[in-house]
Design a protein that fits this description.
It is a single chain. The protein is mainly β. The chain has three helices and 18 strands. The chain has a single domain, classed as Trypsin-like serine proteases (Thrombin, subunit H), CATH 2.40.10. Helix content is 7%, strand content 34%. The longest helix has 8 residues. The chain is globular and about 45 Å long. It starts with a strand and ends in a 5-residue tail after the last helix. This is Peptidase S1 domain-containing protein.
C-alpha cells in the first residue's frame, strides 16, 4: 500500500479566525509514499452554492499543525467526513455555504468545535486505510436555506447497490493540478464513472475492499489533496442527490495520471452513520 496517498492537505498555520489561504501541500518525499494528500483535478468550478451540502474543514492538532478536508452535511446537526481527516486533531473550524475560500461571503456560516465533537469509526485502521469514516457534531443546529442543506443518504433498499457504470459527482477545494501544490480557492467538481472492484484494484491494489467505491480517474479527472472527506454523489431520477462515497485515497503517482480514486462506500456504513447521527433510515 506504499503507492497510495490519503487525500487531506497539510497547511501552513493560519489564524483560527480566518478561512484557510490557498494551502501548500506537504511535499511527497518519494514517488510511492503514503502521506496525506487529495484534490479535484480535471474538473470545473461549481456554480456558487450549487452543492449546498459541501462543507470545508480546517483542522488543527495539539502541536499546532493543521490540515484541510471536505465533508458533507447529512442533517442539521452532523457532518460526515473521513476518519483520517480528524484522527489526531483537537479542533475543527467548519465552513458551510462557502464557495470562494479567500473572499468574504455574507451568507457563509462558520462554526468551531473540539475533538469531543468527533466520532471516529471504532475500527479505523490508518495503516490499511480501513473504515475511514467519521462524524462531526455541529456546535449548534443549522437552519437550512438555499445555500446550505443536507444531502440524502442511501435508502435501506439500496444497501446492496454497486452503482457500477453510473455517473457520479465528486467535489472539493482540493489541489486542481499535479503541477500546482495548493488547494483551489473555489469549489470545484468532476463527473466520473463508477468502476468495479477489479478495475479499482488494478490501479490501487489490495487496499481496495468491498467497503470502497471507486471512480475511474479517466482523462485526469479525479480527487486529490484537500478533497479528503468530501462527497461523491449520484443524481437520482427526481433530481435529488444521494451520498454514495466519502473521499479517501488514491495513487501517489499523481491525480492526473488516469488512476482510479477510492472512496468510503456509504452503504457499507449506513447503519453506523445513521445510528451515531440519530438519523432514521429511509
Amino acid at each position: 500500500m506504499s503507492f497510495l496517498v490519503i487525500f487531506s492537505a497539510i497547511l501552513y498555520a493560519v489564524s483560527a479566525a480566518e478561512l484557510p489561504p490557498v494551502a501548500v501541500v506537504k511535499d511527497i518525499q518519494e514517488d510511492f509514499v503514503k502521506s496525506p494528500l487529495s484534490r479535484i483535478t480535471g474538473g470545473n468550478e461549481a456554480d456558487p452554492h450549487s452543492i449546498p451540502y459541501q462543507v470545508a474543514l480546517q483542522l488543527r492538532s495539539g502541536s499546532g499543525s493543521s490540515a484541510f478536508c471536505g465533508g458533507s452535511l447529512i442533517s442539521d446537526k452532523f457532518v460526515v467526513t473521513a476518519a483520517h481527516c480528524v484522527d489526531g486533531m483537537t479542533s475543527a473550524t467548519i465552513f458551510l455555504g462557502a464557495h470562494h475560500l479567500r473572499v468574504p461571503e455574507t451568507d457563509r456560516i462558520q462554526q468551531s468545535v473540539n475533538k469531543s465533537n468527533f466520532i471516529i469509526h471504532e475500527q479505523w485502521n490508518s495503516r490499511q486505510i480501513r473504515n475511514d469514516v467519521a462524524l462531526i457534531k455541529l456546535a449548534f443546529p443549522i437552519q437550512f436555506n438555499d445555500n446550505i442543506s443536507a444531502v440524502n443518504l442511501p435508502r435501506r433498499k439500496d444497501v446492496t447497490k454497486s452503482y457500477v457504470s453510473e455517473m457520479a459527482t465528486a467535489s472539493g477545494w482540493g489541489v486542481f493540478s499535479d503541477k500546482k501544490p495548493s488547494v483551489s480557492p473555489v469549489l470545484r467538481y468532476i463527473n466520473a464513472t463508477v468502476i468495479n472492484q477489479n478495475q479499482c484494484r488494478r490501479s490501487l491494489g489490495s487496499t481496495v475492499q468491498s467497503t470502497n467505491i471507486c471512480i475511474s480517474g479517466a482523462n485526469g479527472a479525479s480527487t486529490c489533496s484537500g478533497d479528503s472527506g468530501g462527497p461523491l454523489v449520484i443524481y437520482e431520477a427526481d433530481g435529488s442527490r444521494t451520498l454514495v462515497g466519502i473521499t479517501s485515497f488514491g495513487s501517489a503517482r499523481g491525480c492526473e495520471m488516469n488512476y482510479a480514486a477510492a472512496f468510503v462506500r456509504v452503504t457499507s456504513y449506513l447503519n453506523w452513520i445513521t445510528s451515531n447521527a440519530g438519523i432514521e433510515l429511509r
